User: What shape does this take?
Amino acid sequence: MAAPSPGAALLRGAGAVVAAGAAAVTWSLLEARWYTLREVTVPVLPAGQAPLRVLHVSDLHLTPSQQDKVAWVRDLARLDPHLVVDTGDNWAHLDSMGPLMEALDPLLGTPGVFVLGSNDYRAPKPKNPARYLLPDARTHVHRTANLPWRELVSRLTSAGWLDLDNHRGALDVDGRRLSFVGTDDAHLDRDDLPAAGGPDDARTGEAPVDLHLGVTHAPYRRVLDAMHADDVDLVIAGHTHGGQLAVPFFGALITNCDLDRGRAKGLSGWPGPRPDRPGGAGSTWLHVSAGLGTSPYAPVRFACRPEATLLTLAPLG
Assistant: This one.
């Protein structure tokens, strides 16, 4: 039997590559709708306190047609959290207000806090997907808004949720006094951490504070450093999509900000490793959500399922 010609071997090899690529694309399209709940325990409460359940939702990038995502988010209310933290990028379409409110409605009766992300201000536009692989995919800062973000803020605050965009605040949650500090989206350079010690800093009041939380959309290093200096016990962030595209045994390819790839999602310490404190004495806890969505112009995930997280805050020791 004659040996196959080099050309035939090359064609077979090319065909195998094309088939593998097609399979990867098909899988990544399916994985983008394979929502999962992560459960993480954070030992951060004063000793002797009962655990506190915090539901972290982020980066829904909701479009009107995504009723499966709406139903999945609504079902999170069964977890009966004590607090909901929404770290922004809620929608991706001008007509998403109704579906977004439908998704969040079962959670709005629970104490909550939120910040906005860049895609809460403006809907995404078609762009070269390769830009996503840059360390920080901004080419310039867009300050114009084309989404009704003021109405979104009004609806969430009317339900009792705290707007932490460059604000401080406090809530009584399950018998505990929680103080908060937050920033607007650092990806758009809108972050301005409010100064500590003022009348809006709950830690300066007469009522003792059990826990001090930092909330931000994009976990840029400057924001994390500022919150660490503010003595927060836990920073909660989103934005990264967990890298969105990951390589098994390697992890996220990028974070879309200046955070290192090793902290693209999950629990860690800032500025150093934590769980719990090996080489990270003095570090604060950091939780970054991989989020639930993608841009409608890049609706893929690979080795990085869309997620929400139930954080169980537990007593130290």
Notes: Residues 13-25, 139-144 have pLDDT under 50 and may be disordered.
